[in-house]
C-alpha cells in the first residue's frame, strides 16, 4: 500500500481548507526528495528508478543537483495517477 506524505495528500482526494489545498499544491511542486526516498514512496528499489531513468522506460522527470538525483513530489504523484489501471469483469482497462 502506498502512503503519501502531507504535501501530496490533497492530490489523492484528501480534503482540507481551500488555503491548505493550495499550499499543499505549491509544496508538492517544489519539494525535492532523494532517489532513495522516491523509491521508498513508490515501493521500489533506488536501482529500479536509476534503470528507468537511463533506459527511459518510464518518463519520471528528475532534477540533477551535481551528481545527486532528486524527484519532485508532484511528478511522483502524476506518475502514480497516470499508471492506475482498473480491472472490470476480469478485463484490465
Most strands sheet: 3 strands, antiparallel
Q: How widely separated are the two ends?
A: 21 Å
What fold name stands as the CATH topology? Arc Repressor Mutant, subunit A
Number of strands: 5
What is the C-level CATH assignment?
A: Mainly Alpha
| Overall 3D form | flat
Which bin fits the share of residues in helices?
A: 40-55%
- Taken together, the total number of domains comes to 1
Q: Which strands sit side by side, in order, in the main sheet?
A: 1-3-2
At CATH's second level, what is the architecture?
A: Orthogonal Bundle
Low-confidence stretches: 1-13
**What's the SSE pattern?**
HHEHHEEHEE
Radius of gyration, rounded? 15 Å
- Number of distinct helices: 5
Textual characterization of the structure:
The protein has helices spanning 6-9, 18-30, 35-42, 46-55, 73-82, and strands at residues 32-34, 63-65, 68-72, 87-88, 91-92. It is an alpha+beta fold. Mean pLDDT is 78; it is low at 1-13. It contains five helices and five strands. The relative contact order is 0.17. The strands form two sheets. It has a three-stranded antiparallel sheet with strand order 1-3-2. Helix 3 (35-42) packs across helix 4. 48% of the residues lie in helices and 16% in strands. The protein has one domain (6-86): Arc Repressor Mutant, subunit A (Orthogonal Bundle). The chain is flat and about 50 Å long. The two termini are 21 Å apart.
